[in-house]
TrEMBL record:
It comes from the Bacteria. This is Recombination-associated protein RdgC. InterPro entries: RdgC. Coiled coil: none annotated. GO terms for cellular component: bacterial nucleoid; cytoplasm. May be involved in recombination. It holds the Pfam family RdgC. It is found in: Cytoplasm, Nucleoid. Belongs to the RdgC family. GO terms for molecular function: double-stranded DNA binding. The lineage of its organism: Bacteria, Pseudomonadati, Pseudomonadota, Gammaproteobacteria, Cellvibrionales. Its main location: cytoplasm. GO terms for biological process: DNA recombination; regulation of DNA recombination.
Length: 330
């Protein structure tokens, strides 16, 4: 259950739903396995797995949800090979070329035949809401996966006003400054990984792993004008991670001190163990985000959410329509 990646979103409106109400709203979209002709299914499952039944779990003021996505796995190479065999058979029998549209129809036939027998691959996507801090945190390695969860959550609860976390200072410029100095921000140390990019040439990339980031070679690249787009950092209690220019955190690894906090508490069953780990993890992430945002100059609150943009556009259209009516009247 320990998160390995953090995609953080800022709540632009108060999140007032209780765990019970959130469960009620998610229930109509409970996960159901793929049918014989389904290519994928997405739905909500209990965060506690087989040890729970509620689709929203509350602990220490935080709300956790879990989505499950199941996809049918049909290797493209297998499909293409089968289509090629069928196309060749038609060409030999009828002495003609098989066109592009007909090949697509053959591909649809092959998929229809293979789909019921295909293996189903599933993955779980966890996220938690921190109403007091005003965050929604998704354990996702890609923005696409995080947005998929947000889209389904927004659909379930009708309204979810969130925007990706943004800092007041530009991340790549700030991280470049740290490494050029070289001096890590307060409460942090440099890790052993970074990615440098040329702002004038997006294809020019240098990736460093298991390296001393204060070495002269890296310093020379920075002096030459390259900027830091990913940077490995170590926080206070040995928490290691890589942060990128979108403030997305990857390869998050909690240190021994953090894990010992969870292990030192007595848990009578799996549900209690989940609550202990959930509570320890969320407290640590909250403190980490606080220090991290301070290092980047604070939170940029100027970004509008999707709901706010839509509402503003709607008001503009209404005002424009009213103006047009006024012109007709006068």
């Amino acid at each position: 259950m320990w998160f390995k990646n953090l995609r953080v979103y800022r709540l632009t409106k108060e999140f007032a739903l209780t765990a019970e109400k959130l469960h009620e709203l998610l229930e109509p979209n409970t996960f159901a396995p793929c049918g014989s002709q389904d290519t994928a299914r997405y739905g909500w499952v209990p965060p506690l797995g087989r040890h729970g039944s509620q689709l929203a779990h509350s602990a220490n003021g935080y709300l956790m949800v879990c989505a499950k996505k199941q996809e049918k796995v049909i290797p493209a190479a297998v499909v293409n090979e089968k289509v090629e065999e069928m196309a060749q058979a038609i060409a030999d029998k009828e002495a003609r070329n098989v066109g592009r549209k007909e090949r697509q129809n053959l591909k649809d036939e092959v998929l229809l035949e293979m789909r019921p027998k295909a293996f189903a691959r599933s993955r779980l996507q966890y996220a938690y809401i921190a109403p007091k801090e005003g965050w929604l945190v998704v354990d996702a390695s890609s923005a696409k996966a995080a947005e998929e969860l947000l889209e389904n959550l927004r659909e379930a609860i009708s309204s979810l006003s969130v925007v990706p976390l943004a800092a007041k200072n530009i991340p790549q410029q700030t991280m470049t400054h740290w490494l050029t100095a070289p001096e890590a921000p307060q409460h942090f140390e440099f890790g052993h990984e970074c990615e440098l990019r040329d702002p004038q040439d997006s294809g020019s990339v240098i990736r460093c792993k298991n390296q001393d980031l204060c070495a002269e070679e890296i310093h020379n690249h920075l002096v030459a004008g390259l900027q830091v787009h990913k940077l490995g950092l170590v926080w206070r209690e040995g928490v290691e991670f890589v942060i990128d220019d979108q403030l997305a955190i990857k390869r998050l690894k909690f240190g021994d001190e953090v894990m010992e906090k969870a292990d030192s508490a007595d848990a009578g069953n799996a549900a209690q163990r989940f609550d202990i780990e959930f509570s320890v993890m969320t407290v640590e992430i909250s403190a980490l985000l606080k220090d991290l945002l301070a290092a980047f100059g604070g939170v940029n609150t100027d970004t509008a959410s999707v709901e706010e943009i839509v509402a503003k556009a709607s008001r503009g259209e209404a005002e424009q329509a009213a103006g047009e009516v006024d012109e007709v009247v006068f």
